[in-house]
Amino acid sequence: MPERNLVSWKAMIVGYAKSGLCQEAMKLMYRMRTEGFEVDDYILATVLTACGDLLI
């Protein structure tokens, strides 16, 4: 994606998490942070919930 913003990061991360691709979602969260964006509570809760569901 040529230009990234908070909305595009959130869409990608939540999409991966809800598709059960937790490792990819977590990698994107890390990359998001390294590029200077803050992970908000919604993103964190979505990824943790989706990853937790995989364990059940």
Structural notes for this entry:
- With 56 residues, the chain is an all-alpha fold.
- It has helices at 6-18, 22-34, 41-55.
- α1 (6-18) packs antiparallel against α2 (22-34), α1 (6-18) runs parallel beside α3 (41-55) and α2 (22-34) packs antiparallel against α3 (41-55).
- The longest helix is centred in the C-terminal third of the chain and has 15 residues, at 41-55.
- Keywords: Repeat.
Question: Strand-and-helix sequence, N→C?
Answer: HHH
Give the uncertain stretches in residue-range form: none
* Subunit arrangement of the protein: single chain
* Sheet with the most strands, sense and barrel status: none
Count, helices: 3
- Distance N to C terminus: 34 Å
List how many beta strands DSSP finds. Answer: 0
What helical percentage do the residues reach?
A: over 70%
Question: Which range does the strand content fall in?
Answer: under 5%
Shape field: elongated
Structurally, the number of domains stands at: 1
Mean pLDDT across all amino acids: 86
The computed structural class is mainly alpha
Radius of gyration over all CA atoms, rounded: 11 Å
